[in-house]
Specification:
alpha+beta; three-stranded antiparallel beta sheet; 1 helix
């Protein structure tokens, strides 16, 4: 069992027998998730740009074919 801090989102072990909060739950996976968020934040602009270029090329092709 664990409880979650509503301010920061950290999870703490909870001891039902003593009715006390213990240490942090899974401190190691937090680092991985922070890295995942960072990499996602870096990749999203690149994905957006690639999509924008791909869509603009699709739209340009039919216009060129109609002009002859």
């Amino acid at each position: 069992m664990y409880v979650v801090c509503l301010d920061c989102g950290k999870r703490f072990h909870y001891d039902w027998e003593r009715m006390r909060i213990g240490g942090l739950v899974g401190a190691e996976p937090r680092k991985r998730s922070n890295l995942r968020y960072f990499l996602t934040a870096c990749a999203l602009p690149a994905i957006w740009l690639i999509g924008k270029v791909a869509l603009s090329r699709k739209r340009d092709k039919p216009e060129k074919e109609q002009k002859p």
